[in-house]
Inverse folding.
């Protein structure tokens, strides 16, 4: 009967909800010992300048191989760490580890490469963030010019006045900032104009759909044009095909990041692929 079906559906829904909250609790618990067990690593994904095809930076992306749960994607555990407050300690580890890596690359004699790290809202609200970053940079004798901070639209728009203050503090310290996943949040254009950010990262959902969907193409084109007018630069995320690469180049985008030109990889693989012969890669992939 319909009633019976309804009850089954309800039972299934309840089961799914329970399974979901069990998983969240498991992850939250496993995260508690992840730092002391040394379960995190950073992978690095290259970013290229479209005008000269050179490697300009790498984005550091967090990877977690949990002793109890195995590999878990940041798309799953970052929101949980944000809700539980664990993201602040995890984020400090990311800051320390990325700066340590910049120092190590310098010591190995590689060309100086900027590293971009992702910051969560909760980290941004910590008054200690800026001093923590500068202390860590100083301890490793790394220039602030080599660290870029990727902020979310939420950081920028929730409290634009104090966000502007914090971003200005970063800039005075020599740290560049960008807005990640731009276009997916609730940015108000009037605040965007006041925010002293350097770069907009065009969200990959627009890049993915722009070839087959005129509206998405219009959005990408508008974001790039807007950034230019506001004196900001742009990077297209999630570029997977040559067609997408050609399109963003034609639209005047400044930089590119995506599987077409390089996946996020551990530091040793990054060195092999992008430091030793990165000019060959451009020639092969970018013509
Ligand atoms: P994000 O910062 O927007 O990073 C880009 C994501 O897109 C990464 O996913 C990257 O692996 C993926 N990606 C790059 N190129 C392509 C492509 O061509 N195609 C497709 N389909 N995907 C591509 P990942 O590493 O799984 O990270 C997911 C999100 O988790 C990040 O999105 C970021 O919001 C968050 N995250 C990662 N590491 C950290 C971290 O250290 N701290 C914080 N707060 N968040 C982080
Ligand atoms: Mg990012
Ligand atoms: Mg992004
Ligand atoms: Mg994202």
């Amino acid at each position: 009967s319909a009633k019976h079906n309804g009850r089954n559906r309800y039972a299934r829904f309840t089961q799914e909800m329970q399974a979901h909250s069990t998983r969240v609790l498991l992850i939250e618990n496993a995260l508690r010992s992840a730092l002391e067990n040394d379960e995190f690593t950073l992978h690095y994904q290259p970013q290229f300048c479209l005008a000269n095809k050179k490697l300009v930076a790498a984005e550091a992306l967090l990877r977690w191989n949990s002793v109890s749960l195995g590999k878990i994607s940041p798309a799953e555990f970052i929101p949980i760490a944000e809700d539980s407050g664990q993201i602040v300690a995890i984020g400090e580890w990311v800051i320390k580890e990325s700066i340590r890596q910049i120092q190590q690359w310098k010591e190995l004699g590689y060309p100086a490469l900027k590293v971009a790290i992702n910051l969560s809202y909760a980290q941004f609200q910590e008054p200690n963030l800026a001093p923590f970053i500068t202390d860590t940079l100083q301890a490793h004798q790394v220039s602030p010019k080599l660290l870029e901070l990727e902020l979310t639209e939420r950081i920028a728009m929730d409290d634009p006045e104090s966000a502007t203050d914090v971003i200005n503090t970063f800039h005075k310290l020599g740290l560049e900032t960008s807005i990640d996943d731009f276009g997916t949040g609730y940015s108000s254009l009037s605040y965007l104009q006041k925010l002293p950010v350097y770069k907009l990262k065009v969200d990959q959902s627009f890049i993915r759909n722009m070839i087959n969907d005129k509206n998405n193409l219009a959005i990408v084109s508008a974001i790039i044009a807007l950034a230019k007018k506001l004196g900001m630069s742009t990077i297209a995320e999630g570029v997977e095909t040559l067609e997408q690469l050609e399109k963003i180049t034609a639209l005047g985008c400044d930089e590119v990041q995506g599987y077409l030109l390089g996946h996020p990889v551990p530091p040793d693989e990054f060195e092999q692929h992008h430091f030793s012969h990165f000019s060959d890669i451009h020639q092969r992939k970018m013509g």
In short: The first strand starts at residue 40 and ends at 49.
